[in-house]
Amino acid sequence: MLRASIAAAAADDESAAEFVILTCPRCGHVDRMLASSYAMWSDGILCGVCGPPYVKMQVRMVRGTAGGH
Which domain holds residue 37? Predict the structure, then answer.
């Protein structure tokens, strides 16, 4: 029962989390990550799909997208 409670709490935390949607302006590749993780990348994130030369991905904030993509 405790494991189920922990899993439910984790799911609730993620659904309230802030995410960033990363989109490559060149190839259109889309990815997402937690905003707190993205904050550690001070220079932004480069698209590894269409490079080199690598292009900085465009960022959009979203909230509570744990269930959807």
Answer: 2-63
